[in-house]
Design a protein that fits this description.
Elements lengths: L16 E4 L7 H9 L8 E4 L7 H12 L4 E4 L3 H4 L11 H14 L11 E2 L6 E5 L16 H10 L6 H4 L8 H17 L7 E4 L29 H4 L2 E6 L6 E5 L2 E5 L5 H4 L10 E4 L7
Parallel strand pairs: 1-2, 2-3, 5-6, 6-7, 7-9
Antiparallel strand pairs: 1-10, 4-5, 8-9
Length: 292
């Protein structure tokens, strides 16, 4: 297996915008992977696109380690960070848990979806790098279903249900889809205030278009994977790249000439499969065919 740091071309003097997600450091094998992640220059930035861990202490440990290595770290939450896990001493739920994690990141000097969007001025820039927190609203529905209730019934009947239904709480919002709609509204306001002359790199844990979910082994799981409200954001906000995780299917795809990068590590049983891509930092900028 290639070590993750090798994919980032150590010794290359050009600063890079790198990305990874779904580190799941509660697994000892994944914690060992994090220990190998290193920048290639003193000016490399690192995107951490969610699902670092479930417990707050593990999240803070991992993000602290990365913040001490990279010139800048940008973080967005995934569903696992937002779980109120029965084994976590931090029992905060919903938005209160998210804001607690934002405060931890700020103490570590890490950019979050609540902070001003930084501008990458290295090779491939200038580009506004925007960490986002958007959630999902059950609109990636199975064919033939028109409502959330119908879609959930199809998924449940197929034996597919996300752990979010038990562990991810929307407080103070009445539902996760209501929280998602509010996050989309707030994010649209912030993106509208950015410098319109600059392209963007948009970062969200969940894919911001539906096409990445077409490859899912269990298509019903797409319900928990995004929102149709962001289907045109890659064009609307002049994206140079759309960065996401969640699916545990690291790959590069294209839509309307825009690059979508899935940057996850995933669980040991997944990345240890010989047919699975090696767990690795993925280079977002500068982009060439050899950086995939």
């Amino acid at each position: 297996m290639t070590l993750p740091s090798e994919s980032a071309s150590p010794g290359d003097p050009v600063p890079k915008l790198l990305a990874i997600s779904d580190l799941h450091v509660a697994f000892a094998e994944n914690k060992a992977i994090l220990d190998t992640l290193r920048p290639t220059t003193d000016e490399d930035w690192l995107i951490v696109a969610g699902d670092t861990a479930e417990k707050v202490a593990d999240i803070e440990w991992a993000l602290r380690a990365l913040s001490e290595r990279f010139a800048k770290v940008l973080w967005v939450p995934g569903n696992h960070e937002l779980w109120t896990h029965r084994e976590d001493p931090v029992v905060l739920r919903g938005d209160a848990r998210y804001q607690h994690l934002v405060a931890i990141c700020r103490d570590l000097g890490i950019s979050t979806p609540e902070d001003p969007y930084p501008v990458w001025k290295g090779a491939g820039g200038p580009v506004t790098v925007a960490p986002l927190f958007l959630l999902y609203d059950y609109t990636f529905r199975p064919s033939g279903t028109r409502t959330k209730a119908e879609a959930l019934k199809v998924a449940y009947d197929a034996g597919i249900v996300a752990s979010d239904e038990v562990l991810l709480h929307p407080d103070p919002y009445p539902t996760l889809d209501a929280w998602c709609r509010e996050r989309v509204r707030l994010t649209e306001e912030r993106l509208a205030a950015r410098d319109p002359e600059l392209p963007t790199v948009l970062i969200n844990h969940w894919p911001m278009a539906r096409h990445p979910t077409d490859i899912l082994r269990y298509p019903e799981f797409a319900l928990w994977c995004g929102t149709e409200l962001t289907a045109d954001w890659h064009l609307k906000y002049r994206a140079a790249a759309m960065v996401y995780g969640h699916l545990h299917i690291p790959r590069t795809t294209w839509q309307d000439g825009v690059r979508f990068e899935e940057v996850s590590v995933g669980y040991p049983r997944e990345w240890s499969n010989p047919r699975h891509p090696d767990p690795a930092l993925r280079q977002i900028l500068p982009y060439t065919e050899t950086t995939r």
